[in-house]
Design goal:
The structure holds 2 protein chains of 2 kinds. Chain A is an all-alpha fold. Chain A has 2 helices and no strands. The chains are: A mainly alpha, B mainly alpha. The interface between A and B is medium-sized, with 16 and 20 residues.
Chain lengths: 85, 256
């Protein structure tokens, strides 16, 4: 069997980067859940203001989602640049 | 599936990647390099043509095209005036409304066979965010004057503690003014690029399914992804627009 060299940098990155992304996704999901819960409660309390509340909820959700997207961009950049996907 | 020379993520072929190999090398290379601006200009021309046709004969009782255009404009008007107030909203509605329609049409172009979303490259979203940055700073300086704008960046200091914290506030506000457009660009770019990659990977899977038969067909495995792409394209265009409006609102002087 030929010598198979192990690139430990690639091993380390390949095992930690997906976990990091999952961590970012978990945190963002928790925050989004809280935001949507608050919006639903407010809408139930005052159905006339539903459209405004929905707009504000959408804005807040996109801001929270953006942080997960930053993590995704970082992981994809690592994959393309360092791991040569 | 076309893949570029460097190992890259799969992407759906568009008109340029299909046509360029058959053209002379220099024209093909030119088309590849300027892929995104070419598609952006095409989309602008297409949308502009549609709206020009719809607005040709403005009637009091609108026909279908005019009604659609009016719905879009009124929707944007409601949203912007809700944030900026009636008269300021009308003043900034052209810029912000154009931003929304432009970004939305560019995002949705990724679903049209043969086209590609220019917003899936950081260069295009960075350019849009740069436009917003320049416009917001210009608005602030024009409405408040340079001195007034610098005072605003220092947090409108009043009294001893205000002026004590003014340098820190100034530093933080300047960093914020730079980081906010960067976050706008990164958010839009990340979302649209992720959608493109999703579509590309699922289409590749679908073609691999039937690759054994050597037929030019595949299973459309990307069908469930299309509603996701539609929703997120709309949401990201909306968020870009709303955040730009909020940044403008922050920088305007208070009434009264």
């Amino acid at each position: 069997m030929e010598q198979a060299t192990v690139d430990w940098a690639k091993v380390a990155l390949s095992s930690t980067l997906p976990l990091t992304l999952a961590l970012a996704a978990m945190a963002s999901a928790s925050g989004l859940g809280k935001a949507v819960t608050a919006a639903m409660e407010a809408m139930g309390r005052q159905p006339e203001a539903a459209a405004k509340i929905q707009l504000a909820m959408l804005l807040g959700c996109a801001l929270i989602e953006a942080l997960t997207i930053y993590a995704l961009i970082t992981v994809i950049l690592f994959g393309i640049g360092f791991l040569k996907v | 599936m076309t893949e570029t020379a460097t190992p890259h993520l799969p992407e759906i072929p568009n008109l340029i990647t299909l046509v360029a190999p058959h053209l002379p090398h220099r024209i093909g290379h030119f088309l590849h390099t300027w892929e995104d601006p070419i598609f952006a200009f095409t989309i602008v021309a297409g949308v502009g043509l549609l709206v020009a046709i719809a607005a040709r004969k403005l009637a009091l009782v609108p026909g279908r095209g005019q009604a659609l255009a009016e719905t879009v404009v009124e929707g944007m008007d409601q949203m912007i005036c809700g944030i900026l107030g009636k008269e300021e909203g009308r003043r900034y509605l052209p810029f912000v409304g154009t931003l929304f329609v432009f970004i939305l049409s560019m995002n949705l172009a990724g679903l049209v066979p043969g086209l590609k979303s220019p917003t899936s490259k950081i260069t295009m979203t960075g350019a849009l965010a740069f436009c917003v940055f320049c416009y917001v700073q210009w608005t602030g300086i024009r409405r408040r004057g340079i001195g007034g704008y610098l005072l605003h960046l220092m947090g409108e200091p009043q009294g001893l503690f205000g002026w004590l914290f003014a340098p820190i506030m100034f530093f933080v506000e300047v960093i914020g003014a730079v980081v906010k457009p960067v976050s706008l660009a990164a958010r839009l770019f990340g979302n649209i690029m992720a959608e493109d990659i999703l579509l590309g990977v699922f289409v590749m899977l679908g073609t691999l399914f039937l690759a054994w038969s050597h037929l030019p067909v595949g299973i459309p495995l990307h069908l469930p992804i299309i509603p996701l792409v539609l929703i997120f394209s709309l949401v990201q265009a909306l968020v870009f627009t709303l955040l730009s409006t909020v940044y403008i609102a922050i920088v305007l002087p208070h009434e009264g």
